[in-house]
Amino acid sequence: MEHRLTTFPSGLRVITETMPSVRSVAVGCWVDTGSRDEAPAEAGCSHFLEHLLFKGSERLSAQDIARAFDAVGARSNAFTSKEYTCFWAQLRDDDLAMGMDLLAEMLLRPAFRPEDIASEAHVVLEEINMNEDDPGDVAHDRFARALWGDHCLALPVLGTRESIGGMPREVIVAYWDRRYQPPATVVAAAGHVEHEQVVELTESLFGGWEGPPADHDYRDPAIVPRVEVKTRDTEQAHLVFGGEALTRGDERRFAFGVLNHVLGSGMSSRLFREIREERGLAYAVYSFRMPYADSGAYGIYVGTTPRQTAQVLDLVRATLADLGTEGITADELERAQGNMKGSLALSMEETNSRMIRLGRHELTGVSHLSIDETVAAIDAVTLEDVREVAEEVFSSPRVLGAVGPFGAGDLEQFVQ
Asked: Which of 16, 121, 156, 294 is deepest in the core (most CB within 10 A)?
C-alpha cells in the first residue's frame, strides 16, 4: 500500500492510503501546534481547544455533532501532544463526506460561546485533578520538568489550574487564529477511499482558507543532572529515571527502538526480568522513548516500595552501564527485531493506525516508509549500531522525577 499526497496553494496538505479490503475509513485533521507553542498566558490552550472545538459552531451545537457521529456508528475523538493536535473520525466509507464536513465545521468555524468555555474549563480542571491524583502521571510530569527545565518541552500539555481557570475568551480565540492555519494542517485518510475523493471533499470544505505557516521555538535544551520530587506519604514510590535521547528524525531511530525493547519494552526485557521476575521489586517496570524535533528522551518507570528505591535505582543504573559498554546479544537483537516487525504488521491492519502513521509523519517531516521499507530498516540494525546508540544516549546527564515520602536531596546521588 502506497500513500498519495496533494498540497493546495494555501499550504494545506491531503495524504491518503487506500485499503481496498475494508469498508471503513479513518480521517484526521492534524494541526501543527501543541503545548510547546504556548506563551505563559496560553498554558494548556492547545489541549483546551481540543475540547472546545467539539462544542460546536454557529451552525452546529455540541449535541448536533455528537448525534451526527452517533447516528452512523462512527468513532470520533481528538488528542493533543507537546507538538501537535489531531481531530479524527472513523466511520463507514459511505459516511466520509458527512464526517469530513463535521471536522471542517469544528476546525474552521468554532463558536467559542462564553458559556461553553466556562463549562469546559471545569471539565479540563477535573482532568488536571485526575492527573494529579495519579502518582505515576505526576512522576512523568516531574521527569519532564527535571529533564527540560525552562525549555518549552517541559510544559505540561494540560496546563495548570491557574492558567485554565483564568483563561479569557480573547486569549483562546487569538491562539486558535494564530495557530490553526492551512500551512500547519494535514488532512490524512486511510481505508476504503480514493485519493481524488478526499482531495475533492477537502477543496469543497476547506477552500478559501488562507493563512501564514506556523512557527516554532526550536532550540537545544540545557540539560543537567536534576531531581524533581513531589513529596507524598505514599505506600509506593513512583520513579521515572532517564535522560536526553535521539530526535524524531534521527536515522538511528531503528537501532534505538531495538535498544529500548531490550532495555524495558516487553516481558523478556532486561529490566522486567531483573527487577520484577527475578527480584520481585516491582509490579510495573518499563522503558519508553519520547522523540521531538529538537530534543528527545528515554525514560524508565518503576513503581516500588520506598525502602526499595535505592536498590531499584542501582539496578537501573547498572543495566544502563552494561548496555552502554557491552551492547546487546545476538539473541536479544533477533527477538527485538521480530517484536518490532510483528507489532508493526499488527498495527497496520487497522485504518485508524494507518491514518495516524500517515498524518503524524507528514506533519512532523518524518520519511514515509512503506511497511517493507520499515521492515528492511529494522532488519538492517546491527549489534554495533545498537551499542553505539547505547553508548551515546546512556552517557548523557541523567534526571529523575519521583513521587514518594522523600525529598529531592534523598535521591540526588542517583543522577550523579
From this structure: 16
Which residue's entry shows cell 470544505?
205
> Position 58: which residue type?
E
Nearest CA to 39 out of 177, 139, 155 is that of 155
How many alpha carbons fall within 13 Å on the CB side of residue 17?
25
- Alpha-carbon distance values, 27 to 89, 90, 95, 361, 377 (Å): 6, 6, 11, 15, 28
d(CA 11, CA 5): 12
The set of catalytic residues is: 50
Q: Is 259 exposed, middle or buried (0-12, 13-18, 19+ CB in 10 A)?
A: buried
Q: Is the pLDDT score of 1 beyond 80?
A: no
Number of Cβ within a 10 Å radius of residue 120: 18
pLDDT in tens, 218-238: 999 999 999 999 999 999 999
Mean local confidence (pLDDT), 209-219: 92
Residue 56 clears pLDDT 80, i.e. is over it? yes
